[in-house]
Specification:
7 helices; alpha+beta; six-stranded antiparallel sheet; globular; 311 residues; 22% helix
Length: 311
Amino acid sequence: MQPPRGLRQNIPLAPLLSLGTGGQARWFCDVTSEAELIDALAWAQHEQLPTHVLGGGSNLVVTDAPVEGLVVRVKLRGVDGIHPASDGVVRVTAAAGEPWDDFVAACCRAGLAGLECLGGIPGLVGAVPIQNVGAYGQEVSQTIVSVRCVDRHRLRSRELKGDDCEFAYRSSRFKHRDAGRFVVTQVSFDLLGGGAPSVRYAELEKALVRLQLPAPSLDDVRQLVMQLRRAKSMLLDPDDPNGRSCGSFFTNPILSDAQYAALCERCKDGVPPRFPAPSGFVKVPAAWLIENAGFAKGMRDGNVGLSTVHT
């Protein structure tokens, strides 16, 4: 069987990852289309090689040992549907290899509401459905209408409607029931042309009041979110040592009232903060739990440590 186009050997992964760690990939190729992706997956199957899919390289921990098998980097590009709109729903489709933050910025500039609170999140468009990426009161599940992907079992393309993705809090079928089965190649969103920005997060609301912005634009909200993220070292900034991280990957626990009461009984140093969650549950900040479990900001063990500004 012919090897995939652009196949290379012994490629260092560290320069491609936000943490800057990672050994050499035994085999490596970039794919710029679904056909190239299927060819690469088919070749790896034929050669009985494990396959690792790489996107933007954030939130990914790779050891310095050699990485056996084939590393496939998704580089499909293209955005369709972004244009200024005054009202009504606008369908926007982005290829999986588009940088997510650039895509959010372009939607805001076009007056398309629905993603403005998700600026500054590292990675590519193809990653956001897997985690059901969310921040500051928004989740991508609120706007995703379909996800196109390649089924690694059958080596063919498939399109899943938003309801079929089984989205939940920081979760989806891609992350659990079908973990590792699909490689996302394209995501379609329904955004609101001329819509008002979403301001449902308390920290965001307080910041807008402080800045005296009673009627912010979409880009005002996006820029403010970027400021809030920068203050917590949650942007990929080469000048910020805390920014070289694998991300804020702890989810905030969702508890029933009885579970929350039981947690309070166990806490000796104050009552855990709580915020409303769907279906009568409450959300408890993971950062508070981590700190009160004895892991302080800035703790280190050799070259590994916690951020000095956010656990």
